[in-house]
Amino acid sequence: MKKSVTSTLVLFAICAVMAILLALTNSITAPIIKQNQDAAANEALLEVMPNGEGFEKMDLSAYELPATVTEVYKEAKGGYVVTLTTTGYGSGFVIMCGVSADGTVTGTVCLASTETLGHEKTFGANFVGKDAAGVDATDTISGATKTTQAYKNAVKDALNTAIILGGGSVDLRDPAQILNDNLSAALPAGEGKFTKLFIAEVIEGIDAVYTADNGKGYVFVIGEEFIPVDESGNTDNTTVKTAYDILVASTAEDIDLAPYAETLKYITSAKKTASGNFILEVKGPGYGITGGDEYHPASGEYIIVRVSMTPEGKIIDTYTVSQEESKGIGDACADEKFYGQFDGKTESDYKDIDAIAGATMTTNGYLKAIERAFEALNTLKGGSN
After folding, report:
1. At 327, is the secondary structure helix, strand, or coil?
2. What is the CA radius of gyration of the chain?
3. Are residues 160 and 153 in contact, defined by beta-carbon separation less than 8 angstroms?
4. Are 154 and 86 a contacting pair, CB within 8 Å?
5. Across the 385 residues of the chain, what is the mean pLDDT of every consecutive 10-residue run?
6. To bridge 66 with a disulfide, which of 14, 115, 157, 279 should be the other Cys (CB 3.0-4.6 Å)?
7. pLDDT attached to residue 137
8. For residues 365 and 176, what is the distance between their CA atoms, to the nearest angstrom?
């Protein structure tokens, strides 16, 4: 029994001594480890802000910053180093960006990525010394649009972050949010849900028309004005009232395409309005039909485009009905900034548009759809079939 107690006491003493030695060792090594960690962190920070004189990690909990921002260090002279995580071709695209006190980029570096072409490793050099306008003006790399555009957007987020942390104000809403906020302000009864109306009639002075999804009215856009029309058609604006009356009176009938089965095989539907205009839905062979490789397989789907045209051959409105083009590149054909370029065009000038950067096949497929729409118009209004 005595031997057992003695062994226990010896073991306890050994453990106590080891604990004391470990605590002593930790008290000596911990500051050294921290110093080495701080030095490594500062080395990374100095890579994007070579003239930095000291960095302090910030608590971001009190700020509303871009969603890409994960970490910020404030530099002693008023600059900031911002770490951002975004998505290019793949997720986990991590960028560190330095912003000087005067609001220009001091340097950027890619810390991690799963991109396929490697442009993210050198593209950051393009931004040194630039402000937001300079970043916007930087050319994206053809063939690497998604990677380089993601890089540009991250740098702009870093610049905006510096403004916000410095006490300034930045509107972080994207264009879709801004549009919806304007529509909601004009027609609160719409409850924040609106759809752009496809127009098949010639209406002077109106840029766009949105209908409330709940049927509570419309919003007409003239320049920067958003003018409501309630569900009964009431409005104080005479231009809008005239346009509204034209739209609600518009009717259209289906055109039988059976006699044109061969010549118009790429037309999926056709209508003619009471005023004589045509509404056509057309298939265009974009990347989904003509492209594809081992990294970015083709979808096998056509781009479907809806076009309204006058009998004289002037496009009234254009809309991308469906598409399965490459995400983040060719799918820009579903953005009104692209397809809206065709409004007002004729057969002689419809190709005079800005192509989608890095998406030649998609652009050409869309142009082919518009070309087929003009061919169909000429046939349906009395040409040969």
Report:
1. coil
2. 30
3. no
4. yes
5. 54 58 53 47 85 93 95 96 92 94 95 87 94 92 84 96 95 91 97 96 94 97 96 96 95 95 94 97 97 85 98 97 91 95 97 91 97 97 59
6. 157
7. 92
8. 26
Distance CA 198, CA 184 (A): 19
The pair of structure tokens assigned to 343 is 């409004």
Strand 105-112 vs strand 303-309: parallel, antiparallel, or unpaired? Answer: unpaired
Let me know whether 20 and 68 are in one domain: no
Residues in the chain: 385
Amino acid at 192: G
In a domain, 170, yes or no: no
323 in any annotated domain: yes
Residue type, 196: K
Q: Quick one: tokens of 109?
A: 């570096």
- Tokens coding 55: 């960095």
Question: CB neighbours of 194 closer than 8 A, spacing ≥ 6?
Answer: 180, 183, 184, 187, 210, 211, 212, 213, 219
**Residue 281 tokens, joined:** 């839905």
The upper half-sphere exposure of residue 144, i.e. CA atoms within 13 Å in the direction of its Cβ, equals: 16
Q: Cβ distance 222 to 241 under 8 Å?
A: no
The values of phi and psi at residue 59, to 5°, are -85, 115
Q: Would you say 155 and 135 are in contact if contact means Cβ atoms under 8 Å apart?
A: yes
- Quote the CA–CA distance of 279 and 254 in Å, as a whole number: 9
The alpha helices in the chain, defined as continuous H runs, are 2-48, 132-137, 145-165, 175-186, 238-249, 287-290, 336-339, 360-380
Contact between residue 345 and residue 226 where contact means Cβ atoms under 8 Å apart: no
Domain extent, residue 213, equals 175-249
> Are 182 and 199 contained in the same domain?
yes
DSSP 33: H
